[in-house]
Amino acid sequence: PVTMAAAVASWKAFVAATAAGADVYGPECAALREHGMTALAETHFLESVEAAFKTTHVPAFRAALERGGPFLSSSHAHDSWAWVDDAFPSAVATFANAADDVSRRADALETALRGEGKKETETETETKHARRGIMHKTNGFGRRGGSRLRRRARALVAAVAATRGPPSVVSV
Q: Where is the signal peptide (predicted)?
């Protein structure tokens, strides 16, 4: 029998793993699946991604791309736009790494939440497709283009960047 204490403990472990930015989710996901809390876990993950991008990643990206004027160093005195050459590549790389981390974590979470039983079904489906000559790449759910949770998380990141990003980038 499922106890409330077990469900709460599983939830606390999951929240801690999400906050830590783990690429690998542990047994807490199996427990959440048993407690019927997978949709809640996905919602929490997406909300944590949105909060991180609104409060940390997009403001840092924006600040890096808008540091002209008083933030120019003396080495930039001859070229008022030289700071862009310094700031833009690293700011974009940092932002892209954060988005890639979200994708990795979303894939890891979706795999952990769907459990081991689904993998056997996926293998059987892939075998049937191979026998029928259907040779397109799928993500295991029979769709192309990656995991459902990853697509939702990336769309959320794009929406935050589009509404809160630097005006020079958002307007492009």
A: 1-21
Taking only the tens place, the pLDDT of each residue in 44-98 is: 999 999 999 999 999 988 888 776 544 555 555 566 666 667 778 888 899 999 9
Query: Cα–Cα distance between 83 and 64 in angstroms, integer?
Result: 10
Residue 67 CA neighbour count, 13 Å, CB half: 19
Give CA–CA dist 61/90, Å, rounded: 9
Domain boundaries, position 102:
4-170
Number of domains within the chain: 1
Q: How far apart are CA 110 and CA 121, in angstroms?
A: 15
Residues 137, 141, 143, CA angle at the centre, nearest 5°? 50
